[in-house]
Amino acid sequence: MALHNLSLSLQFGELADAATHRAALPRHWVARCIRHALDADAEITVRIVDAEEGQALNRDYRGRDYATNVLTFDYASEPVVMADLVLCAPVVAREAAELKKPLAQHYAHLLVHGTLHAQGWDHETGEEDAEEMEARETEILAGLGQPDPYA
Q1: Is residue 104 one of the residues assigned to a domain?
Q2: Over the stretch 62-88, which tens digit does the pLDDT of each residue have?
Q3: I need a surface site. Which of 57, 60, 68, 118 has the fewest CB within 10 A?
Q4: How far is CA 90 from the centre of its chain?
Q5: CATH code, domain with 38
Q6: Chain-centre distance of CA 115, in angstroms?
Q7: Residue 1: inside a domain, yes or no?
């Protein structure tokens, strides 16, 4: 499988437990997860934020007043994918604990999920689209040696 080129900016906002999230997100792993989900070359910024910033972005851009696990801001899909992925550290940590999954594993799933959104995949447009996106995520994660996030 030929992987596409990726220009990656990895940013961490002000986090109370930043060391935990930095340890779960080494740059090489973030790049690997994203590159495996790409169908084209890309320029992507990944920003890890606290609940306040995550909630403000979700409220201001999606009209939903709560912090969510991942937000994708896609700017272009051709010829180069250009996007920002914003992951809310406290939400990701809570979900990983609830799912009894390692934090890095849950981040991998959300990085793949957000990268697919940046390329036009959408699970909120219908059951068939959701099933196709979940199958694609599972396939990509398997290629990364990760278990099925939906099992």
Answers
A1: yes
A2: 999 999 999 999 999 889 999 999 999
A3: 60
A4: 14
A5: 3.40.390.30
A6: 6
A7: no
CB distance 102 to 147 below 8 Å = no
Measured CA distances, 127 to 90, 130, 133, 137, 139 (Å): 28, 5, 10, 15, 18
Q: Is 73 helix (H, G, I), strand (E, B) or coil?
A: strand
Residue 129: which pLDDT band, with cuts at 50, 70 and 90? confident
pLDDT range class, residue 122, cuts 50, 70, 90: confident
Determine the Cα–Cα distance for residues 102 and 51; give it in Å rounded to an integer: 20
Residue 149 inside a domain? The answer is no
Q: Where are the alpha helices (DSSP H) in 8-150?
A: 18-24, 27-37, 51-62, 89-99, 103-118, 127-143
Name the residue with tokens 């689209």. Answer: 129
- Confirm if 11 and 46 have CB atoms less than 8 A apart: yes
Single-letter amino acid, residue 9: S
Q: Mean of the per-residue pLDDT values for the chain?
A: 95
In the chain, how many domains are there? 1
